[in-house]
Write a structure and sequence with these properties.
The chain has helices spanning about 15-25, 50-55, 75-80, 95-105, 150-165, 180-190, 195-200, 205-215, and strands spanning about 5, 30-35, 60-65, 85-90, 110-115, 130-135, 170-175, 190-195. By secondary structure, it is α/β, with parallel strands linked by helices. The protein binds 5-O-phosphono-D-xylulose. One of its GO terms (cellular component) is cytoplasm.
Length: about 220
Amino acid sequence: MIKVAPSILSADYVNLQRDIEMVDKGGAELLHIDIMDGAFVPALSYGPGWVKAIKPITGLTLDVHMMVQNPERYIDTFADAGADIIGVHTEATPHIHRALQMIKNKGVKAEVVINPGTPVAAITPVLYMVDQVLVMTVNPGFGGQKFLPETVKKIAELNDIKKHQGLDFDIEIDGGVNEKTVVDAYQAGATVAVAGSYVFDADDPVSRIQALKDATK
Ligand SMILES: O=C(CO)[C@@H](O)[C@H](O)COP(=O)(O)O
């Protein structure tokens, strides 16, 4: 059964605490927090102050996805704010190894992220040091996009490497996830599903978390 990480990008910001408590009680395991800098991706979202504010109101694992150019500049700040996992894009820095080392040195779980246009080969040298790999299943920057099925083969490739090299990392998918698209990704080896609009745009968000779990039993 897949672990579910609702993305607060699609939550009701005015009632954020209500929405977080709802998905927490509703069976989610992680809370996905998208940091967008207006440079690596066009949009701006929120910063470490949000992570700090959310930390005391939930026991969910805070899964911080940095869509930020040169993320090394902010790793310490997000770690100090309470992030449990910090994800950095390999496309956003010439120093992905150093960025992952910085995350681990802060005692936080390290995640490397790849865009749909980036091959798995780009991150194989750092797989030994990560706790999670995020395979973007849409181009990053916006919620509500369509799942790109061609990304599923990268999940399978990562799962193979994981088995053959005896590595132990979660494989997360993000973008266009629903009860249909999650199935192939799960069968290929995905262990964590981020879902924004599918969960928060629904009349009953908790039923959507359950639907993702039911689809991957
Ligand atoms: O990283 C991102 C967007 O870049 C996401 O986490 C979105 O929040 C996913 O939204 P949906 O596709 O699930 O609506």
